[in-house]
User: Fold these one by one.
Assistant:
Number 1:
Amino acid sequence: MKALVIDDSRVMRKIVGSILSGVGFETLEAENGQVALDTMAAHHDIVLCCIDWNMPVMTGFEFVVQVRKRAQWRDVTLMMVTTEGEQDQIVRALAAGAHEYIIKPFTPEAILDKLQFLGLVEVQETV
Amino acid sequence: MTIPATWEPLSAVDPVLTIAQDLFTTMIDGEPGHLNPWAGADPDLEDPRYTWVDVNGPVVTRVMLTASRVTGERLTRALLGMDTVEYVCDADFADAVGEIANVVGGNVKSLVTNPGALTLPVVTHERPDMDTATCLLETYFGWRGAPLGVGLWALT
């Protein structure tokens, strides 16, 4: 499965990408929403986007709005990964079509919990 | 400390320390206990770098981190999982310390009444001119023995 990590910070792209790779995703990267749209158009098998909010050129929120306008991307899971933690921001993103919302700073476990909830990774049984 | 009327109470270091400790525990150290209030007199930072983000709104709030270049390089290596002696280029340095400021600033934003957009991080060698700004908080934390300055400013 392919995942697209969208963040203007290379550090954050690497951290999120590493977590996703660890559970089997092939990860692609984009440094803003516009590059992410171009990447989506070139890779039709992306199933998950992890999206920062504040980015130059096109914000993560604008990206979510653009993705949700296109029927061919209706099955792509959109997860905000951002410092924007106010309730109204979360509501805006979810109303625009994001499925999940993670506030930085986060632990790898927090992302994995969300992916399990979304059915994108299998629940790990503890012995 | 003067606090504009548009602010929620922010009378102590604690909220910012908690935000910073959460960040360092989850994304830098992988365990708690390595970021604490700085003990002793305010330190002199060698070859400092200033990193800030602004929270726009009725009052523009600047969140600024100050660290020596060496400490910033250590933070960069920790965030990027680099070896302790690996060379840190300027781009990685700015990206890493900028993201730290971004995460702290984004969480501080949740403490502000009617916040606006968060700006992208800026990293400079020179302390930005804030002669007309109101200092809301200026303190130091210690990270693995190295001082990190943290300041909140209301810009006018």
Number 2:
Amino acid sequence: MILEGAIIYSNLLVLLALGLTLTYITTNVPNFAQGSYAIVGSYVALTLLKLFDINPYLSLPVLFVVGAVVGLITYLALKPLLKRGASVEILMIATLAIDLILLGAIGAYSEILSQIVGSTQAKFVFANLDFTLFGFKGILFVSTFVIILLLIGLYLLLYKTKFGIALRASMENPSLAQTMGIDVEKTRLFSWILSGALACVAGGLLPFMQEIVPSTGDLIIISIFAASIVGGLRHISGALIGGYIIGLSESLITYYLSQAFGTGFLVYGKVISLIIMILTLLIAPYGITGVDWRKVKKMLFTS
Amino acid sequence: MIKVKNLNAGYGKLQILFDVNAKIEKGKITTVVGPNGSGKSTFLKTLFGLTKIYSGEIIFKDKNIAKVPPHQKARMKIAYLPQTNNVFANLTVEENLKIAGYVLDKDKVKERIEIALNVFPELKDVLKRKAGTLSGGQRQFLAMGMALVRDAEVLMLDEPTAQLSPKLAEVIFEKIIEMRDEFGLTILLVEQNAKRALEISDNGYMFVSGRVAFEGTAEELLNHEKFKEYSLGITAI
């Protein structure tokens, strides 16, 4: 039961961290609005459910498109700053501003939706809409399926297509990629569109495992950043590794601490993520994927 | 092939090139030499669109391409090979060669990769290896092979022999000659090994403090009094 919840949470965290890592690699923007992207997805799914009676699982393709548009708009908003060569700090503040705008917009929208449907929509869950299979929650299968689909899709895109190789080339060395005739701008745009799309899909699944309020994104962003940083912000695979490390640790450690010291510990789940992040930064500043494992192996065998 | 008229360029507000005029002739090797910080590499970067141009013209095929972005210049069959980081370390050799032909169609890429592998047979055995694991010489072969895949008409090489052993550097010089003679490439070369570079060149330019100090045929430059002093290290010019 606890492991089930931890895996579901980790799957969703991977989706969110992947988007953050992608946009950081391609544009150097630490996107603090990534959590709120997810909540946009949650509210779009809620709207489709309340107004058109569409099951949130069936609304995932719509969320993908909506997220893509949100990602695109964010990139276009940041583009003037990127063009002027804005520092990481400025870009970070800009995404914080976008996050605040989204937070306000989601809050206002929840009020409007409440008026339309005639009951408060400021907080909601989809858990009651989920199915069960072999005694497990449906969200476990759906979120795992989404991750597998995503990984296969990403692998085929990045390693088997011309655009994918161009995308990897642009991530590694944009100025050299330009000399090959690659339009680096297109690859940047693509990463923001994909990032937004993945976050909104994760947002559509999130209410199956936790209660959503307009500010939920600002709480999840801590775990998203921790996942990306622990895995390594310079490698896409870092999001996958970091997502599972943070997701599983946050869920399991918090649970066992609450068992030992009381339920009061449950509210400090994010502290676990932050502690793991700090420890990783101290030992491996570039995250797990940034570690030269051959060197480590050599060191261990020679000592 | 390329005419440069009154070119002023630099990085942000820092001007490096001052009123540069030059002519790069078709099917010939033109070498730019000069002391450190004279603006040789910046000249190449500027021609490719990687710096800020304040004024001046770069005429290629009767068109001013000064404002054309780098990725479009690559499509105009102009190739630029940076001095460092000139291959994608995380991609395999094969992927590097493929990505070099990004603007070409699939069949053409195949054909060009075959040509590149014939000129650089050393790469055949390492096709599946990541470029980051290659030796310095292999990397340089790959970078030049990538330039060949691009099916370029103009090839701009920024110090292709830097950090290579004299023996390997000589191989690179021979490959450059081969690229001119066998494929008719127009080559613009920036080299620290000025004497050897001019020996294989048709024309040359000497840059000093971001300006063309003197120009002429490679032979003229080699016999120029100032060049002799520069190459012997007698004067900073």
